[in-house]
Every structure is written in C-alpha cells, then in structure tokens.
Backbone:
C-alpha cells in the first residue's frame, strides 16, 4: 500500500514558526489536520491525538499569510492548493472576516480497496456509509483509479468540493484516467449528475457525499438509466439510512402499509407495518466501521426486507489483517425493528426499549419487576401501534419491556373500544390479577398521559 500525500506543499503555505515544527515532526506521517484559530496556539491533530505546535498565539497577520498563498474560498468556505488533494476550510466572524482555518491533509492511498476488489468486478452500484473523516473520499478516489485504469471503463466523477481530484483544473493523478466534472455550487450537484449521463456517456458515475433529497432522486434516475453508481453518504450503519427521510430513497424508500386483520394475525404484527417502497438505487451497501474493518450488505434489497420483517439482518464483515490477507465472516445483526415474525425459530419473547433503543433480551424477565421508574415493567399492548408506545416512552425517558405473552405481563394497555369486545382477554387478566389500563384514542398524547399517571401512582 503506497501513499501519495505532497505534505510539503501544505506545510510551505503555513507561517514559518509552524513550518519549522512540522517539517521534522516525528508523527508527520500520522497528521490529519492543522487548526489555526485567531488568539490561540496552532494545533496539529494526529491519528494518535492533538498536539500544540508552538507557544506563540496566532495573529491576523499569521492567518493572512496562509490565506494569500492558497486559492480563493468558494461559497462553501473551502479552498485548495494547486495539484494537491489538501483542503483548507475557513471560519468567519459576523463581518465575514476569516478568524480560523482548518487545513485538512489529503492523501491518495493506493491499494486501500483490495478488501472489496471482487465487489467492483460484479459491476453493481455501491453505496459507502461512514462517519465524517473516516476515509470515504480516499476510498472512492482509489475506486475511480481502479475502475478507469485497470477495468478500462468510462468513469465520470462528480466532484462537488474538489476533494476527490484536487483544486486544480488538471485533476490529481490519484483518480487515474477517470474524468472529473466540477460543481460550481452545492445546490447544483443533482443537475450535474444528470448532465454527466446525458452528455458524456459514462459507464460508471462516482458521487461523493450524497446529502439531499434531490441528489437521492438524481441517483435513482441514473440507476434506472443503466449506469453503475458508486457513491458515499454520511451514516454510521444501514439503520441510519433507513431512518433518514431524505436519503432512504437510495435503498428503495420506506412506507407504512396497513394489513388486513387476518394477515396481521398470521404475521403476528400490528396492522400498520413498514415495508420497502421500491427497488433500491444501490445493490451493495458498505459500512466503514474502522479503517480495516468493513461491514458489507451484498444484497441490500434482502437486507432491508429482513430488517423490516424479521428483526435481524445478515451481513458480511471483512477485515484487512496485517499480513495483507482479508478475513471474511458472516454475522447476524439484531435490528431496532419491532416487526418480529411469529414463525421465526429464534424469536425471543420480549423486547427492551430504553432511550429509543430496541434490543432482544437473552433471558426471560422475572414477573416481579413492577417499578416503572427503576425496574423493567412488562407491558402487553392490545390494538395499539408499537411506534406510538415508542414515541411516548422516548419523550418520558422510561425503561420498559413489551411482551407478546399475556401471562408474563405486569399490566395490559389497549384501546377502550377494542378491549370492551375481548371478553376472553379480560377474563384471563382477572385470573392472573393483571391490571388493564385503557386509552380512548390511539395517540401519543393519550399514552404519554397514561405513563405519567402510572409514574405518579407508583412513586
């Protein structure tokens, strides 16, 4: 794995007293960014942690020294250095004067995608998920080089912030033979994406940081025209993408579907459930958990369906070992979906909800847990959506358990009109001495009020 960083070109644009400290620094190869703020000491951030570069306080003249040696700042407050991948971002005061700079080190790392080389050869659209700063841009830059040079495909890069191919009109060598289309303003990115397909006949389009609903719609349009897409977006895991309303269209979109009584009974779910709306624009999703550990959903359509229906998803974890070998294993992930199937052999009896996190319990909960504030309360819900319960509990910050076994429950909560008709349930509750609480309407307000009254009663 070789690295092309041109770090000296960035250091040469910094004030002299900072240059002296960085040129011979022991951790120079691990440098991530340099922070220059007015009235503070200059700070370098390494992979191992931050470190001050000098005892001297930065002045207006020091900031001006760097600003005059780089390109003009765009409307996104970003600038670059000619023929490099380095990025300089600025912070402005109320008078629009620059009082802070963040100098981000850009590196072209060759060999970083050996872990997913086989996925590129499948010629499927790939979406890469990861936190800011984890290396998504570095990954798609290397993908652009591999696909254009070694696979000899026509590749167009939509380079919104000039991070992939550098600030210059002549793109950086790190993208190989791929062509780059620059975007004048961020809000025009979706238009440039469509223009690239219509004017330049690409086989592959690479997009960095898909972030708006219009860009997601443009990505879907491109996918339907038979062009392979490779894109990145911010997110920790697949669940973040599902919950993001502006980006969920990338994986097919999510919609509420109302089932018939018989179908809901057969599935063992509420009548109102979540389902995938359409075919995903991307076929493969890669989660960048760490630099050498990636989670891969090889069939995103199946992963989404499993997530929404069966309360788990199966994904592949790939790790790049120090010996440069790739370790691959499959793992069954528990999800936050409430739609567990009755027919699943591994179905657990109860689910815990605490601060909006649903997890499967490994052990059965003892029936003596009755304190709503401090202990777990087992609740059986009848004719109430679990999503409403979830919202109410999130507002109050409670800790409770939903169970599908009436005999295991401490209390029963349901709609008044439905509970009146269910004599069998009322008889069973009377035998087991389980109190029944009713709400007149299926609303978050009603359920919240009920929980608040329970808290007062038990305190």
Residues:
């Amino acid at each position: 794995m070789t690295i092309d960083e041109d770090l000296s070109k960035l250091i040469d644009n910094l004030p002299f007293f900072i240059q002296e400290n960085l040129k011979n620094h022991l951790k120079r190869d691990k440098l991530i960014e340099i922070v220059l703020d007015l009235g503070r000491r200059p700070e370098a951030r390494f992979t191992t942690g931050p470190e001050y570069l000098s005892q001297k306080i930065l002045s207006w003249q020091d900031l001006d020294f760097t600003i005059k040696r780089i390109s003009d700042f765009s409307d996104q407050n970003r600038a670059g250095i000619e023929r490099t991948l380095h990025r300089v971002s600025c912070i402005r005061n109320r008078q629009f004067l620059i009082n802070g700079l963040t100098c981000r080190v850009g590196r072209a790392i060759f060999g970083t995608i050996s872990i997913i080389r086989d996925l590129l050869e499948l010629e499927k659209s790939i979406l890469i998920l990861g936190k800011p700063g984890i290396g998504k841009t570095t990954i798609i830059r290397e993908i652009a080089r591999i696909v254009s040079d070694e696979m000899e495909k026509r590749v167009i890069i939509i380079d919104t912030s000039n991070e992939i191919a550098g600030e210059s009109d002549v793109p950086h060598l790190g993208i190989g033979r791929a062509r780059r289309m620059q975007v004048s303003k961020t809000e025009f990115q979706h238009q440039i994406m469509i223009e690239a397909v219509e004017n330049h006949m690409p086989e592959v389009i690479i997009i960095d940081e898909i972030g708006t609903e219009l860009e997601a719609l443009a990505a879907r349009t491109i996918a339907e025209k038979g062009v392979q897409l490779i894109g990145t977006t911010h997110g920790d895991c697949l669940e973040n993408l599902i919950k993001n309303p502006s980006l969920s269209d990338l994986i097919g979109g999510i919609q509420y579907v109302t089932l018939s009584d018989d179908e809901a009974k057969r599935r063992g779910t509420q009548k109102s459930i979540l389902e995938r709306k359409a075919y995903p624009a991307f076929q493969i999703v890669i989660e960048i958990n760490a630099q050498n550990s990636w989670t891969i959903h090889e069939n995103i359509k199946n992963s989404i369906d499993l997530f929404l229906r069966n309360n788990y998803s199966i994904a592949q974890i790939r790790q790049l070992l120090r010996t440069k070998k790739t370790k691959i294993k499959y793992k069954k992930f528990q999800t936050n979906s409430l739609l567990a199937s009755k027919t699943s052999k591994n179905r657990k009896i109860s689910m815990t909800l605490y601060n909006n996190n649903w997890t499967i319990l490994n052990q059965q909960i003892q029936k003596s847990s009755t304190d709503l504030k401090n202990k777990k309360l087992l609740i059986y819900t009848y004719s109430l959506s679990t999503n409403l319960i979830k919202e109410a509990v999130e507002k109050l910050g409670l800790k409770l358990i939903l169970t599908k076994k009436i005999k295991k429950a401490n209390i029963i909560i349901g709609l008044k009109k439905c509970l009146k008709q269910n004599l069998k349930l009322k008889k069973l509750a009377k035998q087991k001495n389980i109190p029944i609480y009713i709400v007149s309407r299926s609303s978050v307000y009603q359920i919240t009020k009920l929980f608040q009254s329970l808290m007062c009663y038990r305190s």
